[in-house]
Amino acid sequence: MKNILISIIVAAAIAASGYFVGQTMYNAKVAINSAEVKGLAERKVKADLVNWRLNFKVASHYKEDLPKLYSDAEKIQTEIIALLLQNGLKKEEINIGVISYRPIEFRNRDQKLVDQQHQLSNDIEVQTKKVDLISSVRSSINKLIAKGIDINNFEPEYRFTSLNEIKPDMLKEATRNARAAANEFAQNAGVKVGGIRSARQGNFVIRDVGENYSDTKKIDKYVRVVTTITFYLTD
Question: Among candidates 91, 94, 56, which has minimal Cα distance to 77?
């Protein structure tokens, strides 16, 4: 009786071992029969936020001119703000900095003072969603340059901030495109595409239209994402 019981246990162990070995081989076979493909999704979008900075300065060779320089700086600042408001910007979209003072010394090789300059300057920054407005506003500011005012009219930075709103649809599209690529591969191989074995989402990349690297120079941009998906292939 004892020998019979031992035989039954050994037989059961061998059967169980055979099942697990067979299941492992089946899983290994399916894993080998897979296809890794990439799916691309791309959208053309428009910037929805712009940051733009102006800087102006007044200067004199004489420190005693500082009171007049400060008065001139305030007048220029007022003139710039008025021009921005006249061209459609709102007060809450304009950030006015603090007028700052900077003395500059010019010395010869012997470190003897040969000249000096006393500068007052200020930054005015604009942040607005009116991206189409900035081009015309910048042109109006250039009229002040023509009047002899020392202004740096910096290039605006156009940004797209609504990426989260388009992410889900773009990922769905990238996945559909990846499956389409897998189906084409499978058709040529005489097999069918099964479920997803693994998936990796690439980074969302924003680039200015026509540019390889910059993403803040232009209003029009492309948003791009590539997903890498491995599909099971079945008979």
Answer: 56
